[in-house]
Structure formats: C-alpha cells, structure tokens
Design brief:
single chain, about 190 residues, alpha+beta, archaeoglobus fulgidus dsm 4304 fold, seven-stranded mixed β-sheet, two-stranded antiparallel sheet, 6 helices, about 25% strand
C-alpha cells in the first residue's frame, strides 16, 4: 500500500521560476510557469516581474487565473520565495487569491539572516518584504530539499515531492521551468536543476 494513500494527489501543478539576469540589470525580468498534469507537461505560461519590485504576487495570480489551465490547477510551486532578485512573493495572499496550496522549494539550506539583512539594508520596502518571509515560518528540510508551505501538510508536501521529483530532488514542474527560463534567458540552460 502507498505510504501516502491518504494524501491529496495534486495532479495539476504549476511551477514558476525566473529568467537569469545580469548583476546590474534594472527593470523587468521574465518568469515562466510550467503546468503539469501528473508527470506530463501540459503547457507553459509566462510574464514579467520587476527586479527587486513588489509585483510578483499580483503577476503570479494573474498568470494562473487568466490561463486556460487555472480552473484545474491544484498546487503552485515556487523556486524560492523571491523572484527577480528580491521581489518577494506574498505566499499568504497568493494562496488566498487562488484557493490552492503553495509550496516553496529551495535546493539548499536557507540563510535567513543574510536575506533579512539584505532586505532591510539594501532594498526599498524591505521591511514589508521580510514580514512576508517571516509569516511563512522557517524552511523545513524535506525529501532532499527545503520547503515552506501554505495550505498543504508536511506529509502531503513530502508525497508531492516524492511523486514529482523523478530526475533528482527538484520536482519536475520547477525543473522544467528552470530549464526553459535558462534556455530562453541565456540562450541555453545551464547549471543544476
């Protein structure tokens, strides 16, 4: 019997990642979302968010709601809590607006003090952004990655990670988003996914 038989299945998932950008870049940064049904790539959505801005949450909500896939999506995955540098996603608002759980995934153990210091010392509006990060609570090690979650239990998060991370520890929706973003942004994908 499947150890996760009593967990929600989350068969329709969108995973978001941002394009690589040069260090001194100002302005918009493209983002991509890959929509999966089980382990099959069903579609791609894309948009732009402001480097170190405040519009990532709104853009993600619009990309999901306005897509033909929005009505069927059951889970949003994010490659980290911030996009385009320090454009921090308000995961609480994203979850409430879309009515689906949100799972933030990071490959490496977080350095919350370094992030807090950068937000408070270098980024306009950094205090409000740090409050969004704190509201999520600390990242938890799980299935070879680190997660923050909203609307999904730890057991369900582990089940979805194990079912979707078939080529390493990163779930396929995030792995594909990362590959597409790298390929489109830099001409070819590179680095680990």
């Amino acid at each position: 019997m499947d150890a996760y038989a009593h967990c929600r299945a989350f068969s329709h998932i969108v995973g978001f990642d941002d394009f690589p950008f040069p260090r001194g870049h100002c302005g918009d940064v493209p983002i991509v979302g890959t929509i999966y049904s089980g382990l099959r790539l069903e579609g791609v959505v894309s948009g732009k968010v402001q480097r170190d801005g405040v519009n990532a949450t709104r853009v993600l909500i619009e990309l999901v709601r306005d897509s033909k896939f929005g009505a069927h999506l059951q889970l949003v995955m994010l490659q980290g809590v911030a996009m385009a540098g320090f454009n921090v996603v308000d995961v609480t608002r994203l979850h409430a607006a879309l009515g689906v759980p949100v799972l933030v995934v990071a490959r490496h153990a977080p350095r919350p003090e370094a992030m807090r210091r950068a937000l408070l010392e270098r980024i306009p509006g950094g205090g409000a952004k740090w409050a969004h990060v704190e509201r999520l609570g600390p990242m938890e090690p799980l299935a070879g990655v680190h997660v923050q979650r909203m609307g999904i239990s730890l057991r369900e998060a582990e089940a979805v990670l194990r079912r979707t991370a078939v080529n390493g520890t990163i779930p396929e929706p995030l792995r594909a988003a990362h590959l597409i973003a790298g390929g489109m942004g830099a001409g070819q994908s590179r680095g680990r996914t």
